[in-house]
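Model it.
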Amino acid sequence: MPPILDTNVLINIVKGDKKTKETLYKHKRESASITVVNRYEFLRGVYSSIPQGAKRDKLFDFLDQFKVYDFTTRTASYCAEVYYNLRNNGSLINELDIIILGICLENSESILTSDRDFIKAAEITGTKLEII
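Modeled.
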């Protein structure tokens, strides 16, 4: 299964990070995807730091190459269960990351990230995880 790319991976791709590129090369035959949350987080940064113009347009085009998993009514149940399990284990993480995990679980997808906060959360929730 192709991984869902976390926002930090998207940023590292744009920055040309060598380690990220090497990791993605291992997945070259797979089509990576993102969640609507990753799209939001990435665009938030684009709007905050890049003026309108060709560079911004290029980043929009970059995002458009990925399949996007949306937040649905069904997703809410997965996210609530993730929250419950993390809270009961004393391992709460950022709310947006909880939503990303819920979307991953709902769609039986793995997540590719460099965010170490996901390690314990993935272990508790049974989410497939690959750390760069």
